[in-house]
Amino acid sequence: MADGAIVVDLAGMKAIAIDPATRIARVGAGVTSGDLAGPAAAHGLALSTGDTASVGMGGLVTGGGIGFMVRKHSLTIDSLVAAQVVTAAVISAS
User: Fold this and answer.
1) Does residue 4 form part of some domain?
2) Is residue 83 included in any domain, yes or no?
3) What's this model's pTM, rounded to 2 decimal places?
4) Domain that includes residue 56, residue range
5) Tell me: the pLDDT tens digits for 5-54?
6) Domain-located, residue 54
């Protein structure tokens, strides 16, 4: 960690909503690949995410997302439909 940096623990933000018809998952900022794998499998879906269950989806997706199915299904970021980015400016304006 860099000197003077701030770490924000997003572990409590674990909301997961999966629409099996569109095959789109909406996940909270604290969701890990392992958190999403089970609910996705319940709908017959698999993840094209990294190969470690403990990695957070935010970092995984924005970092590219290289996993076991990358050759067949591309990087995780290639499947990103939308993202909501919250900055300190947004929080202080509330």
Assistant:
1) no
2) yes
3) 0.77
4) 16-93
5) 888 888 899 999 999 999 999 999 899 989 999 999 999 998 877 678 88
6) yes
